Amino acid sequence: MPAPTPTKRTAIVEQAVWLVAAAWGWRPRIGPLQAGAGAGRFQHSEWTALLGRFVQNAAIDYATMRRVRRLVEVYLHRLAEDDPERFADADDQLAFYLNAYNAIAIHQVLLHYPVASIRAIPGARTRPYPVGRRNVSLQTLHGSILRAFGDPRIHAAISTTARGGAQIQPQAFTGSNLQRALDTAMRRLLHDNAHGARLDPATNTLYLSSIFRSFGGDFLQPQAMPGPLGLLAGWRHRAGLVPLLRPYMPPDLAIAMQQTPPQVRFLPYDWTINDRLFNA
Fold it and tell me: pTM higher than 0.70, yes or no?
């Protein structure tokens, strides 16, 4: 049997880390409400201002943003000092953690810029940051905390700072806009012909983002989130993803797939940094 390539070895290691994070990561205490009176309690206005200034067409102007890195750190300090378990609204809690993930990922790039990929930053996804009065890493935030909310749309809302990942948007998530924003994030991902979804009519093959290979189980079995076993379901039952994702796809693509169910394959993940300088 041939030895695994470096790319395959990396994928195997990353999947193992995800399974560990899902099995033993800290779980938040989630509020009982959704889109209720407590929505928007934590204010993310300065994060919205930063994103609005430096994000354009899902790319980030890191070269200019690093000059005001201190403002990102002020926002991260606020995230560290507040306790989302005191929030009355689950939407506000989830918005808090989504913004925390995106701010930490961007901060890692700013610390090491210029850099070709977040993967080139040692420990970028395992370095602990204080968030909500706990020390957590990007891996823990994604693998156990965000997934604990049982909403698979989170995978389209977090930015890995990579071109192949979910598109970063020029505004923060808030409790009051969360449900609409998560639907928008799913549509943006699946409307991305290069990295999200495309159909090859000649072979009736639907090519999906490899996000759905890694986390398809969350879409198929959201009730199992954030446990580790659900992560494996997307590998085994990829065809079951099609009807779940169809509502977020471009209308012409959704209609084309209704006639004959396509076979599903996954697109390679482009880890190149989502830098506006490179995308210009």
Answer: yes
